């Protein structure tokens, strides 16, 4: 539904006019389906790797080890090839994100999303129909390319079509769809676990549904005005700006956009420009947020939730049901972020979550250290308490580091380095997601309950980083971040003077 007229600050205090139009909402929902693809895959892989039929077909040694009597609780699933099934996707996404950056700049955000859906559909066909391990891994690599392209294009698309006053809420549609995808995947796994012998094929095959929605839906939505003007489609860019703002009074915003794109076109090597001193604040924060996001331990829990719950004593069905519960919490808490991010601000949400995540991770570690050894199981009451703590941890992550890890990098880079800078953010996320996915089961085998203290220690580090180095970006137009954010920050302002030049992007386009 269309919202009322809003105004947002522009250059020199000029107000931009616009409203949340029905068309913008539709564009946002379609684009954010890229997050649905990503989330479904995060949720589905952990459940599938806990299914007996899947393990028998591809990882018989893991299956045999898991059913052995008195097998070490923490080491049931410790297998590097099994972990590669989950992690290979993120390695492919890491590489793909840099190619996606160039496609995003040269051909637009919309085309990049279409390419993402095509690769993802190809990966679904291979994984769901896999007859041998090599087909499974190649399929995961194709899925990873799709994820790399989608995660590059979708947050940029959402940030660029949103009115500044609602940029945070609209951008979080991506993360909301990630959580919905995880939730749907958990339900699918719960329903297919007893469908023998091909339940796992149904689970993997249904990943094609969000990919088809993105593929067909992206034919119906517009390109962003930023991308159109950047590629010198000026009349079309202005027309689309009027359409998404719901008003003809877009002259001030359009003029600012044209000027920013003109300056960006002078930058012939955006990745090289990204290495300049003036780009360091945005780049450091973009990469750091991805590292911290993964070292909260969230994806270790989301990838392997059924495995984790089986470790503490749940049966297969109960562990999958517990994963469904955490999925519900994940979705609901992300919705909370949609309503709070543009009112209370980014920094408050990040810091509040750090406190809650530290308490819950530490508590889980203590409970497991005291109550779970290599061969016993937790009592029902203690096991339920662990699930509650996991839900509290997921809750705090979902309204903070989950969505803001994508939002803040998408809104802080100037246009001339935006696609390149966000490519570094995506690739960093994929790299550390790969590391966690590949290492978690082995870490759990080696560190046992200590793995939760490991993640808690990282949360302490990210808390201090947030306090001192992450600025508040609520309500600041994207193209005014330099003057209103970076030049005002106690530490980052020193990077805004490079050889005496104005580093807002004007007059320094040397390559």
TrEMBL record:
Q: Which SUPFAM superfamilies match?
A: MFS general substrate transporter
Q: Which UniProt keywords apply?
A: Membrane, Sugar transport, Symport, Transmembrane, Transmembrane helix, Transport
**Domain Major facilitator superfamily (MFS) profile residue range list:** 27-474
Bilayer disposition of the protein: Multi-pass membrane protein
Record-annotated membrane-spanning stretches: 20-40, 81-99, 111-130, 136-158, 170-192, 198-221, 283-307, 319-341, 348-370, 382-408, 420-444, 450-471
- Molecular function terms, GO-annotated: monosaccharide transmembrane transporter activity; symporter activity
Q: Which family does it belong to?
A: Belongs to the major facilitator superfamily. Sugar transporter (TC 2.A.1.1) family.
State what protein this is by name.
Putative Sugar transporter
User: Which organism is this protein's natural source?
Assistant: Zostera marina (Eelgrass)
């Amino acid at each position: 539904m269309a919202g009322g007229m809003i105004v947002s600050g522009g250059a020199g205090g000029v107000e931009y006019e616009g409203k949340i139009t029905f068309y913008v909402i539709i564009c946002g929902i379609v684009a954010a389906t890229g997050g649905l693809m990503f989330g479904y895959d995060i949720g589905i892989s952990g459940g599938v790797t806990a299914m007996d039929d899947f393990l028998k077909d591809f990882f018989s040694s893991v299956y045999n080890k898991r059913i052995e009597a008195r097998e070490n609780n923490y080491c049931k699933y410790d297998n590097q090839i099994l972990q590669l099934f989950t992690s290979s996707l993120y390695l492919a996404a890491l590489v793909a994100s840099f190619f996606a950056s160039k496609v995003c700049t040269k051909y637009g955000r919309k085309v990049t999303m279409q390419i993402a859906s095509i690769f993802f559909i190809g990966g679904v066909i291979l994984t769901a129909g896999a007859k041998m391990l090599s087909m499974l891994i190649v399929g995961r690599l194709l899925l990873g390319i799709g994820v790399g392209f989608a995660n590059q294009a979708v947050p940029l698309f959402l940030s660029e079509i949103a009115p500044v006053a609602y940029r945070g809420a609209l951008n979080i549609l991506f993360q909301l769809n990630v959580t919905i995808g995880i939730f749907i995947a958990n339900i699918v796994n719960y329903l297919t676990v007893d469908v023998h012998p091909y339940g796992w094929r149904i689970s993997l095959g249904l990943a094609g549904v969000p990919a088809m929605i993105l593929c067909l839906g992206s034919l119906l939505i517009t390109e962003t005005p930023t991308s159109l003007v950047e590629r010198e489609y000026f009349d079309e860019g202005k027309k689309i700006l009027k359409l998404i703002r719901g008003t003809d009074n877009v002259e001030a915003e359009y003029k600012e956009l044209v000027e920013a794109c003109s300056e960006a076109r002078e930058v012939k090597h955006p990745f090289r420009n990204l290495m300049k001193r003036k780009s360091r604040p945005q780049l450091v924060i973009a990469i750091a947020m991805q590292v911290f996001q993964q070292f909260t331990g969230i994806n270790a829990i989301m990838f392997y939730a059924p495995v984790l719950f089986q470790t503490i004593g749940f049966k297969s069905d109960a562990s999958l049901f517990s994963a469904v519960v955490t999925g519900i919490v994940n979705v609901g808490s992300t919705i909370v972020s949609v309503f709070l991010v543009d009112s209370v601000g980014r920094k408050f949400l990040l810091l509040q979550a750090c406190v809650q995540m530290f308490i819950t991770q530490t508590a889980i570690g203590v409970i497991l250290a005291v109550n779970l050894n290599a061969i016993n199981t937790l009592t029902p009451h203690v096991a339920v308490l662990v699930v509650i703590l996991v839900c509290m941890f997921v809750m705090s992550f979902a309204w903070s580091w989950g969505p803001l890890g994508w939002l803040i990098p998408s809104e802080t880079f100037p246009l001339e380095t935006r696609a390149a800078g966000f490519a570094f953010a995506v690739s960093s996320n994929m790299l550390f997601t790969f590391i966690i996915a590949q290492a978690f089961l082995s870490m759990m085998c080696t560190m046992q309950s200590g793995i939760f203290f490991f993640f808690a220690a990282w949360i302490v580090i990210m808390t201090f980083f947030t306090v001192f180095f992450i600025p508040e970006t609520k309500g600041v137009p994207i193209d005014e971040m330099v003057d209103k954010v970076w030049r005002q920050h106690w530490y980052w302002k020193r990077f805004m003077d490079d050889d005496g030049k104005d580093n807002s992007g004007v007059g320094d386009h040397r390559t």
